[in-house]
Specification:
The protein is 17% helix and 30% strand. The chain is α+β, with helices and mostly antiparallel strands and 196 residues long. The strands form 3 sheets. Strands 3-4-5-8-9 form a 5-stranded antiparallel β-sheet, with helices on both faces. The chain binds nickel (II) ion (NI). The site of nickel (II) ion has 6 residues, from α2.
Length: 196
């Protein structure tokens, strides 16, 4: 929506444009709806959506992004990176992943509490309870099954992104609002432009 540069993908000969979309902010009703599963895989439309989501996530230096955050009502999330996130330089690397129609199942009943931010809730951080260990399943762009076990930060990012597909933002998961506040107050040393 903002920047458009033509890029031709050598392997598919599909024309993909570089597109950084505007990220919807909390209050927009499109962030609070449960969205639809993808019915058709491997299409140019789906490939372009995922490409746009990566462009938008990287431009915002996010750890992940869900389709509803750019106003698309489909069950598509992207997360992770093949290089360390400047936001979380000390955290273990989460592999760059496209996950479509995801299902999350907790492994055990352990919970962990840690700080999260969200590109749709800019300037704020909160401590959010999540399952410590999960199995997630879903599909990649071509419709191949994806199945992985994850824990720690990886598990947290997946739970946060998949919540967006059910219309849930992280403050709606919080139980203690004394642990919710402005990044500049909670973490004065942190770059306030980095959200998640
Ligand atoms: Ni988010």
């Amino acid at each position: 929506m903002c920047k458009q540069n033509g890029l031709r993908s050598a392997d598919t000969h599909t024309f993909l444009t570089m597109a950084v979309h505007k990220i919807l902010k909390m209050g927009d009703p499109r962030l609070f709806r449960a969205v639809l599963p993808v019915a058709e895989f491997g299409t140019d439309t789906l490939r372009q959506l995922v490409s746009d989501m990566y462009d938008t996530m990287r431009a915002a230096k996010g750890a992940g992004l869900a389709a509803p955050q750019i106003g698309v009502d489909l069950q598509v999330v992207v997360f992770g990176s093949d290089a360390p996130n400047p936001r979380y330089p000390d955290r273990p690397l989460v592999p760059a992943t496209v996950l479509i129609n995801p299902v999350i199942t907790p492994i055990g009943d352990g919970e962990a509490l840690d700080w999260e931010g969200c590109l749709s809730v800019p300037g704020l951080r909160g401590r959010v309870p999540r399952w410590s260990r999960i199995r997630y399943t879903g599909y990649d762009l071509q419709g191949n099954a994806v199945e992985r076990d994850a824990e720690g930060f990886h598990a947290r990012v997946v739970q946060h992104e998949c919540d967006h597909l059910a219309g849930i933002l992280y403050p709606m998961r919080m139980r203690d609002f004394t642990q919710f506040g402005f990044t500049e107050v909670l973490f004065p040393e942190m770059d306030p432009d980095l959200d998640d």
